[in-house]
Amino acid sequence: MNRLGLYCSRCSARLPFRYQEMKCDCGGTLLVDYDLEHIARTLTKEALQTRYPSMWRYKELLPVSNPDCIITLGEGWTPLLRMQEWEQKLPIKRLWIKREEQNPTGSFKSRGFSVAVSLLKEAGATKAAVPSNGNAAGAFAAYAGRAGIEASVFIPMDCPPLIVDECPLYGAATFFVDGFIHDAAAIIEAGKQDQGWVNIGTLKEPGRVEGKKTMGLELAEQLGWTFPDVIIYPTGGGSGIIGMWKAYQELKELRWIDGPMPRFVCVQEEGCQPIVDGIACSQAESDQAAGVEASPTGMRVPNPPDLAFILSIVEQSGGTAIALSKSQIAEATRTLGSQGISASPEGSATWAGLLALCDSGWLRPSDSVVLFNTSHAMKYVKFGSISALPIIKSYEDYCRL
Ligand SMILES: Cc1ncc(COP(=O)(O)O)c(C=O)c1O
């Protein structure tokens, strides 16, 4: 087996593989450790090319040891779309959008939950629960349904109704929480013993980071085993940034890539921006639970579980973090829509961030940039918001408008 155990992202302690309690005694986050020397000897880039286009093409770098336990809905290998027209208009060299909205549950969350639910299956778990701003709940519900695992999802009550409504459709026990995502997480922590739930919230178990790592592996493969200069990613709990950073470390150790680490840019919405504030004041103590004003999206996480880790990744990569206003994000949704791309507010924030970083001169004319469109615009449609459209029955009606 390629999975050796766990290592601490802060103090480098090594531990046997376990499945819950991913905090080291020093407070650092535990990550999966692989036998990369063995993988380098036995797996080649050429062999990968013959495999099915899904994220499970990287199975040697994923922690599921029993292939019969893999729960898949066809996730990953999403298109990387080049935006040539915008390369002409913006002061950067190359621009792509990674179309994560094309995953089986309409968001990048499919990746993390494919691995997390496979690990649940492997461990023989029958019940699990997740706190979520929506997309994680939908993805967990779908994969748990396929695995025959009883899912409970806890979602702040102002989250997008279409995303929430999908959860019972997949068979999950679905609850609105009068509060934020950390309030939802507190309910699970309080009830997990009584209810027998495995808590698969952000950084509570090893699978979700590993699944998100495949975004980085895939990006490198799609770019001919190179990374772009800059990755702009909508950040909430931070497991996507941690996963892509880990992909870079592992590919470097495998000697499959040799360039510098991409500069990671975290985008958030104004009114809930712990990463932006943490970068600005170089410390990880910005508890933002009070006074949250940002919209209910995946970026609205006032207290990321390991803020210090996210800040260290952004800093060591030479990246930055930027907060965008609601109107900048809404404008970006329209711009991407006019290019045929259905972008969620989170995905749109990457576009708004790109424009702001071009304006400020932070991005360089030689930079290649990848934006992550992490979910679909459609999932965020509010009931009633299309009622302003004209209703007609004939061409005469049309002419009278
Ligand atoms: C669409 C979308 N984008 C981005 C994020 C934030 O991702 P991460 O938890 O990896 O920071 C989320 C999380 O809920 C999300 O749903």
Descriptive account of the structure:
It is a single chain. With 401 residues, this protein is an alpha/beta fold. It contains 14 helices and 13 strands. The strands form three sheets. The chain has a six-stranded mixed sheet with strand order 4-5-13-10-11-12, sandwiched between helices. A four-stranded parallel sheet has the order 8-7-6-9, with helices on both faces. The protein has a three-stranded antiparallel sheet with strand order 2-1-3, with no helix packed on it. Helix 8 crosses helix 9 and helix 10 crosses helix 11. The longest helix has 16 residues, at 207-222. It is globular and about 70 Å long. The termini are far apart. It binds pyridoxal-5'-phosphate. Residues 107, 109, 133, 135-136, 202, 234-240, 298-299, 344, 346, 374-375 line the site of pyridoxal-5'-phosphate.
